[in-house]
Amino acid sequence: MRRIAVVTGANQGIGFALVEGLAARMNPEDLVLLTSRDPGRVAEAAARAKGVAQIEGRVLDVSDDDAIAQLAAGLQAEYGGVDIVISNAIAPLTPDRTQAEQADQFIAVANGGTESVLRAFAPVLRPGGRLLVVASSLGTLDQLDPKLHPLFDGRSFDEIVQTVEDWRQAIHAGTAADQGWPEWINTPSKVGQVAAVRALAAERRAADLPQNKLIASICPGLVDTRASRPWFDDFSQARTPAEAAEPIVDLVLADLDPSQYGELVRDGKVLPWRGAAA
Ligand SMILES: NC(=O)c1ccc[n+]([C@@H]2O[C@H](COP(=O)([O-])OP(=O)(O)OC[C@H]3O[C@@H](n4cnc5c(N)ncnc54)[C@H](OP(=O)(O)O)[C@@H]3O)[C@@H](O)[C@H]2O)c1
User: Fold this and answer.
1) How many CB atoms lie within 10 A of CB 2?
2) Which domains does the chain have, with CATH numbers?
3) Which of 18, 64, 134 lies closest to 6 in space, CA to CA?
4) Euclidean distance between the first and the last CA atom of the chain, given in angstroms as a whole number
5) Which of 7, 100, 239, 250 has its CA 20 to 30 A from that of 166?
6) 60 C-alpha vs ligand 1 centroid, how far in Å?
7) Considering the entire predicted model, what is its pTM?
């Protein structure tokens, strides 16, 4: 059977490496959709991406909930579903403007995009499917002030979506710091991604595991990309995007390990939700 893969935010960085990593290890009849927001950059990246499987560029702005739903429905109609989906897109966050000024776009892409991908693609995932979110080790609960933990812990998917929206509004109201939110917006954003994956997995676990499906979030480690470059001086320990993509592609193509279902996984190992110390 022809397998279909979708990667978001894939014209550069880890997403591009995931497309090439998947396409290198899938079959010639399989299809990897390299998606991102800008038509020119998508076309350029799809033209230079190499692999055994077919690679096709598709414009997909993940802050557009309807566009994500349409892509999922279109793939369902055309191919009967999807086998591999990796939600990876992230908007640039730069030191030259305040985090508050950049919060709307950042949260719309990282959290809104992830929530829309999870919502639209989980129902069209074929048996054996993999639905992964590229998050971070910043996504464990212990990264946040303990008073915020109940907002993310054991909550439903809709409650997580609402918590992220409440946080965004608190940033604009100037009340986020008083409520315990850190200034560095990537941290609550990553906790929100991991919590959304956990909430969806809690709903779907009983149906997914017998069908050999995996929903999980991923930590790629520190990777030398456009997203990380403005924030770190020393990249001597950083991975290249291709190095970071390898264990993620391993996870996609490996036999299902039920202990990874719904969890945050780094290099094949589960990172505890409440943090290593807990
Ligand atoms: N780099 C690291 O050290 C590191 C560490 C931990 C986790 N991560 C995570 O890994 C993932 C990928 O990060 P990266 O470092 O590869 O970032 P990156 O190099 O900045 O690439 C981000 C990609 O997302 C795309 N994008 C931005 N806005 C979009 C939108 N509205 N719709 C669709 N695509 C959009 C970008 O397209 P344009 O080219 O058009 O902007 C680009 O292709 C992120 O979730 C990030 O948080 C990275």
Assistant:
1) 14
2) 4-271 (3.40.50.720)
3) 18
4) 43
5) 7
6) 13
7) 0.98
Radius of gyration for the alpha carbons in the chain, expressed in angstroms and rounded: 18
* Ligand 1 pocket residue status of 100, Cβ below 6 Å: no
Alpha carbon distance 216, 250 (integer Å): 14
pLDDT tens for residues 216-256? Answer: 999 999 999 999 999 998 999 999 999 999 999 999 999 99
Do strands 264-266 and 269-271 pair parallel, antiparallel, or not at all (unpaired)?
Answer: antiparallel
N residues, the chain: 278
pLDDT digits (tens, 9 = 90+) for 60-90: 999 999 999 999 999 999 999 999 999 999 9
* pLDDT tens, residue by residue, 197-208: 999 999 999 999
The CA 1 to ligand 1 mean position distance, Å, reads 31
